[in-house]
Design goal:
There is one protein chain. The chain has about 180 residues and is mainly beta. It is about 10% helix and about 45% strand. Strands 1-2-3-6-7-8 form a six-stranded antiparallel β-sheet, with no helix packed on it.
Length: about 180
Amino acid sequence: MKRLSFIAILAVLTLGARAQELKFAPVDASPADIVYYPLNSAKAKDGPTPSIKVVYSRPTRKGREIFGVLEQFDKVWRVGANECTEVKFFKRVVVGGKTIKPGTYSLFAIPNPGKWVLIINKQTDRWGAFSYNQAEDVVRIEVPVALQDKPIEAFSITFTPQPKGANMVLGWDRTVVELPIEIK
């Protein structure tokens, strides 16, 4: 009898646990993405090991004017959406004449019509640019803006190979900027 009662109680508890509906967060409006340099190196079975990894969120235009309106000029921007964009260097790199040791850093920008200031910062795991601390900057570099005829709907990051490393290319709306990175 005790055994039968135990089995009945166990069955009720099991059914009760299954009756609870799991609730997952909905898909984010600005989904996270990852890009490596060399491109797709993480997917290649026998390819090169990555030198750089960027984890970022990809907001979309949705018909909005982006730079100068949504993302104001002369203000620090987190580069993307949600948490700060994070850049992991697997090797020593040189950015703007400054050697940066391997590690994970955040990427911020100060957009302007003709040029941007791109910032590599020691702070990580931050939401937005609300707690940005300039004292934690590793390097700041001014880069020119290139305007595109066709708008880029989703904020995007890629790399273009260069003789001594790569350019990290950031594009959104009609704006594209490139961050030269020398890989040691």
